[in-house]
Amino acid sequence: MKQEPDFELIESLFFAYRSFVGEADKILAHYGFGRAHHRVLHFVYRNPGLTIATLLDILQITKQSLARVLKELIETDFIMQQEGEDDRRQRLLHLTPAGYILAEKLSVAQSIKLNAALATIDADGHKYVRCFLKSMIKS
Fold this sequence. Notes:
Helix content: 55-70%
Strand content: 5-15%
Number of strands: 3
Oligomer: single chain
Number of helices: 6
CATH class: Mainly Alpha
CATH superfamily: Winged helix-like DNA-binding domain superfamily/Winged helix DNA-binding domain
Largest sheet: 3 strands, antiparallel
Order of helices and strands: HHEHHEEHH
């Protein structure tokens, strides 16, 4: 038996995502950056010293795609690269002070949006939201 698409849920996810990234998009536009820049900033912010190989694995993008975005973030002094201590071929990524400020600003904007939505449900609801999102990631 063919399952009918749940268009209401599909559209709710679309609109929720648009709302979630909306404020961040406005902040990024001020710098001439887009969502790819945001993802790189976010994961380097959360994982200082992240290797390029690990970042590629997290983002599941090509080296070519990352290279363009990373080059822009380095040239505009938001990210810096350091040689690995054990392997000098490794490039470890760190935020500069400006990168840290921008990443924090983006995270706060999105946290405000999430916290406002989560405030409408109880603690059990928070657990179910997290479970749902983790299930979506695994699918």
